[in-house]
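Contributing: when you submit paired examples, paste them exactly as shown. First protein:
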Amino acid sequence: MLCVTLGTALHSAQTPAPRVSLTGTVVAVNQQSDSVTLIDLKAMAAYRHVPVVGGPHEAAASADGRTVVVTNYNKAGAGPQKTLSVIALPGGDTIRTIDLGEYRAPHDVRWVDATHVVVTSEANQALLLVNVSSGAIERVFRTEAGVSHMLALSTDRTRLYCSNMQDGSISVFDFQSGKKIKDVKTGRETEGVGVTPDGRWVWAGNRAEDTISIIDTRTLDVARRLPSPGFPYRVQFTPDGQFALIPHAQAQALVVADVARQSIVKSIKLGLTKVADPSAAGVFPHPDNRHAFVTVRNDDSMLVLDLVTGETLARVAVQSSPDGVTYSPVQR
C-alpha cells in the first residue's frame, strides 16, 4: 500500500525501472581523501578527483550549475579548517580558495544568489554570509548554540534554519535582517535539517533518539514527531515538495516520507554495494523527482536510486569516506 502511494505520485509503481539515462554532473565530497569526485551521469563514471584544502564535508552547486562551493571542515591531525574551495564545472579547476579568517569549521553551505553563499562556522557558533566573488564575509548570524552543523534556506530567502547538535535544537533566523527569531527544541543530536520548497515545514532528524521532528514554520513549534530508527542523518526534499529524503546511516537505507501526510512511505535498502552494511551519508534529488543520489561512506561510492521502484540503478566508485553530495545540470 505504501509503495503504491509513492508510485502514484511519481509514476506507476508497476512501471519497470528505466535504463539509467541521466545527464549532468554529480559532485561527491570525500572527507578522508581531501577531495571531491566529479561524476559524469551520462557515462555513469567518475572523471576527476579534485583535491581541496582538507577535511571537506559538504558542497553546493550554483543555480546555473557552473560553480561548486566546498566546505573544508576538519582535517585529521590538523583540526578545524577555515576555508571554502570554489570549483568550476564541468572541468573541475579550482577558481579560488576563500579564507574565512577567525571563523573555523565551516560545515554546511547553501547558495543565496549568483554571488553569495551562507555557511556554518561551527567553532564560532555562527553562520556566515560570504561573497564568493570577493571572499568577503558580509554578515554574521550568531546561533550561540553548540555544534551548529547543517543549514536550510527557504526558497524565498526570508528564513534561515540551522541545526544545533549539542543543544538538540533548530535556530530560526530572519534572513534579511539577520535577527534570530527562535531556538526550537527538537530532539537529541539534531543534525539533518531541511525546509520544504513552499516554506511551510521544516523537517529535522534527531540522530541520537531515532526521531524526525516536523516544525510548523507559522508557529515555530514542533507539530509532529515521527519514529525513524537507524540514525536519521540528512534531510532533502524532492523539487516538487512531495517527498522528504532522509538517509539513515545505521539502517542501510534511504527513508522516503510523504510531506503532505507527514508519514514515512518506504525505506529503500541500498544495493550494489561492496560492503555488507552500507552506511548512507549524503543525499541529493535529481530534478526529475524520481531519482536520488546517495553517498555511502564505508563503500566509497555514490549510488543512483529509483524512488519509485526502490531499485539501486548504478554504483560509481569515488574516494575515501564520501559525505556531502550535490547535482549540477552541466554536462561534461
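Second protein:
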Amino acid sequence: MIKTVVCFAFVVLGVIGLVPFALLAVLLGFVGLRRPMSVFIYRLVQGWARGLIVLIGCKMTVVGRENVPKSGGICFVSNHASIADILMLLGYAGRPFGFVAKKELMAIPLLNVWISVLGGLFIDRRNPRKALKTINAGVKRIKAGGGMIIFPEGSRSRGKGLLPFRPGSFKLAAQSGAVIVPVALAGTYEVFERNYRANSCPVRITFCDPINVVDIPHEDRKMVLADRVRDVIGKALEGGAGS
C-alpha cells in the first residue's frame, strides 16, 4: 500500500512539476520550434515514465525496437489491457506519438494540457462531423512525419484477453497510408488494475514487424488491416507474459 501511495505521489508531482516545460514548449512552438520541442517534451516524459516503471518495480522485457522506424509517419497499433499501457509506450516506444482521447478528458486540469502537448487529439464520438475533423488532424500529422497510436479494441480488455478489433478504428492508418507497427503489450493489467495497487510484475512489450499500408488496396484497407494486425498481435501475445 505504501508503494502505491508513493507511486501516486510521483505521478501527481510529475504532472504538476513538468507543466512549466509543457507551457514553454507550446510557446516556442508558435515561433517555429514545434518539432524540436516535441522531441524535447517526449524525452522529458519518457524519463518520467521510466522512473515510474522502476518505482513500481516492473520487470521489463522489450522486443523488436529495431522495427520502429526512426523517422517518417508512423501509426502504432496496440492491444489495450490497462491504463498502464500508455505509460509503457511513453517509456519504450522511442518516438514521440499522439493519441486520440475522448473529449471528456479535456475537462481534467493539467491532464488536458499534457495530452495536448504530447500530440493527443480530443474526439467527440457523438458528433460525426467533429470526429471526422479530429481523424483528419491525425492523418495530417502522420503525413507530416509524426506518430500516432490507436487501440482498435475500443476499450480496455482488463485481463480478458484480446478483444475484437473495430475496423473503423483503422481509418487513421488507412487514410494516412502510414507504416503500421503492431505492438503487443503483455502483463500491463497486473501493474495496477487487477487489485488497484502498484504491483511488481513482469511486463513484455513486443514491437512487431511493420506493415506498409500502401501495399494494401485502398478499398480493402480497414478490414484487411484489422484482421492482419490482430493476428500479428495475437501471435506475439502467445509468447508474452500474460495479457
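If you have annotations for the second protein, write them as plain sentences, like these:
The chain has one domain: 2-238.
Residues 167 and 239 are 25 Å apart (CA to CA).
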